[in-house]
């Protein structure tokens, strides 16, 4: 029986058009990262599974990771995320390097998920992380970087928003005013993380069940209705019952409020919003957490997610080094860009010049000119094999190069050629030995 031509479920073949789009997306991400002085890194595709067991959370380990036992009896996993790898790498060198450390990568990851809009099994995820930044300033920078990346694709605050919360604040609310045990807190975290994916009544019923007290459920309902920094400050004051209000406020809420006021003063007010339902599914986050959301009602999903983690290096026996970062998948990003018509066309290959030759005697000249032009940075395709004008034109119609050069025995003997600009229809008469003029003509036109 013949084998299937389709790729494994949830993975993709990238044909040239899709590959051009992918390269475009990655190059924008890299360009903006470099503008923010982030350095590139990468890690291995396989890691020992313990790396993810330590801090990534049950869902990732129990439901999503691709793992197997290798020939040496070690249990390994295909990377489902990059954060544990980057933490492992930073743990090796952080003592010797000056901080903060700013790194970015665009790895392919695998998660055993049900393939659906925005979610596949193999996907590429842009990651940016900053380690060892002074308090508050890492958050501030990483969110600006996330906005700059979105803007580099032409997106504005009309297209997307960054929903922000803080685990310090959520921890405080759950342990303080709602007064839940750590086990119940964990359950409630999981429930909030799924809030937007379930009907409101089901959500409320599950909240009642976890809190098992109408008063606690009422405080919780109040918490999930908070929508601004002013709201949460009032909520804090109204529900506070401890003995060190100032200290608890400074610990649980001040960093978040500082982040909002700094972002606002830098002109990013219209990009950010407090959202109590953002808690993030991964266990290692300890502080600010955020997600970038599409504002389009038909594509209301997360394009990126991230947060701050204070203790990730501790799993390698290292002293704490706080980090904050985010991951942005190219799958939801592409959906977002498509929804808002922000993707340029990649249907056609970018060939600047097509050279065709009418008889075999012109072949060597065609190949020599092509190489000379390529050395000058011109993208040249040679139509291989002698061809009649009709065939050259028909190939040219399909490929749509910017310029066309046809060589025959006359051109070879006189050295005079006609370089045709297929966009403007202009014809440039050039001597074949004047390569610089040809390069200037091709590169100078748009
Ligand atoms: P995450 O929320 O699991 O976080 O993933 C972040 C982003 O990766 C998502 O918002 C989405 O864009 C993309 N993504 C996740 N799963 C899939 C999938 N199955 N198919 C396509 N895209 C997907 C993390 O992975 C954290 N490690 C991010 C981070 C970096 N936190 C700090 N630094």
Characterization of this structure:
This protein has two domains: 16-339, BirA Bifunctional Protein, domain 2 (2-Layer Sandwich), CATH 3.30.930; 353-444, Anticodon-binding domain (Rossmann fold). Strands 1, 5, 6, 7, 8, 9, 10, 11 and 12 form a nine-stranded mixed beta sheet that branches. Strands 14-13-15-16-17 form a five-stranded mixed beta sheet, sandwiched between helices. With 446 residues, the chain is α+β, with helices and mostly antiparallel strands. The chain has 17 helices and 17 strands. The protein has helices at residues 16-35, 50-55, 58-64, 83-93, 137-152, 167-175, 182-193, 200-211, 214-224, 229-239, 245-252, 254-265, 330-339, 363-375, 389-399, 409-414, 435-444, and strands spanning 39-40, 46-48, 66-69, 75-78, 101-105, 108-110, 122-131, 160-166, 272-274, 288-294, 302-309, 323-329, 353-357, 380-382, 403-407, 416-421, 427-431. Bound molecules: histidyl-adenosine monophosphate. The site of histidyl-adenosine monophosphate (HAM) has 25 residues, from strand 7, strand 11, strand 12 and helix 13.
Keywords:
alpha+beta, binds histidyl-adenosine monophosphate, 2 domains, 446 residues, nine-stranded mixed β-sheet, Rossmann fold, BirA Bifunctional Protein, domain 2, elongated
SSE arrangement:
Blueprint: H1 16-35, E1 39-40, E2 46-48, H2 50-55, H3 58-64, E3 66-69, E4 75-78, H4 83-93, E5 101-105, E6 108-110, E7 122-131, H5 137-152, E8 160-166, H6 167-175, H7 182-193, H8 200-211, H9 214-224, H10 229-239, H11 245-252, H12 254-265, E9 272-274, E10 288-294, E11 302-309, E12 323-329, H13 330-339, E13 353-357, H14 363-375, E14 380-382, H15 389-399, E15 403-407, H16 409-414, E16 416-421, E17 427-431, H17 435-444
Parallel strand pairs: 1-5, 8-9, 13-14, 13-15
Antiparallel strand pairs: 2-4, 3-4, 5-7, 6-7, 7-12, 8-10, 10-11, 11-12, 15-16, 16-17
Helix pairs in contact: 1-5, 7-8, 8-9
The chain binds histidyl-adenosine monophosphate.
């Amino acid at each position: 029986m013949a084998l299937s031509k389709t790729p494994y479920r949830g993975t993709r073949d990238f044909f040239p058009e899709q590959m051009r789009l992918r390269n475009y997306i990655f190059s924008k991400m890299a360009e903006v990262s470099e503008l923010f002085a982030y350095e590139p890194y990468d890690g291995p595709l396989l890691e020992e599974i313990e790396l993810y067991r330590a801090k990534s959370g049950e869902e990732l380990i129990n439901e999503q990771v691709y793992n197997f036992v290798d020939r040496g009896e070690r249990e390994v996993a295909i990377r489902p995320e990059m954060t544990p790898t980057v933490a492992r790498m930073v743990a090796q060198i952080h003592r010797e390097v000056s901080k903060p450390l700013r790194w970015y990568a665009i790895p392919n990851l695998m998660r055993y998920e049900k393939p659906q809009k925005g979610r596949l099994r193999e996907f590429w995820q842009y990651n940016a992380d900053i380690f060892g930044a002074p308090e508050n300033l890492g958050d501030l920078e990483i969110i600006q970087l996330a906005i700059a990346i979105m803007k580099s694709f032409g997106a504005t605050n009309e297209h997307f928003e960054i929903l922000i919360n803080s685990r310090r604040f959520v921890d405080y609310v759950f342990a303080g005013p709602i007064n839940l045990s750590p086990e119940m807190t964990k359950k409630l975290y999981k429930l909030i993380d799924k809030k937007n994916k379930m009907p409101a009544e089901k959500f409320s019923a599950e909240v009642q069940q976890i809190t098992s007290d109408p008063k606690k459920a009422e405080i919780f309902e109040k918490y999930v209705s908070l929508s601004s920094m002013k709201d949460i400050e009032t909520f804090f004051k109204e529900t506070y019952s401890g003995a060190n209000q100032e200290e608890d406020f400074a610990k649980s809420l001040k960093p978040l409020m500082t982040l909002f006021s700094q972002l606002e003063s830098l002109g990013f007010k219209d990009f950010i919003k407090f959202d109590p339902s953002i808690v993030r599914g991964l266990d290692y986050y300890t502080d600010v957490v955020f997600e970038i959301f599409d504002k389009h009602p038909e594509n209301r999903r997360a394009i990126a997610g991230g947060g701050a983690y204070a203790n990730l290096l501790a799993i390698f026996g290292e002293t704490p080094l706080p980090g904050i970062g985010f991951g942005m998948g190219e799958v939801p990003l592409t959906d977002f860009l498509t929804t808002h018509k922000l993707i340029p066309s990649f249907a056609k290959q970018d060939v600047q010049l097509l050279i065709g030759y009418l008889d075999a005697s012109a072949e060597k000249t065609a190949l020599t000119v092509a190489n000379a032009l390529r050395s000058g940075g011109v993208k040249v395709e040679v139509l291989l094999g002698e061809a009649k004008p009709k065939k050259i034109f028909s190939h040219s119609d399909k490929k749509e190069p910017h310029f066309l050069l046809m060589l025959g025995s006359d051109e070879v003997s006189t050295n005079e050629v006609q370089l045709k600009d297929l966009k403007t229809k202009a014809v440039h008469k050039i001597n074949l030995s004047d390569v610089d003029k040809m390069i200037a003509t091709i590169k100078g036109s748009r």
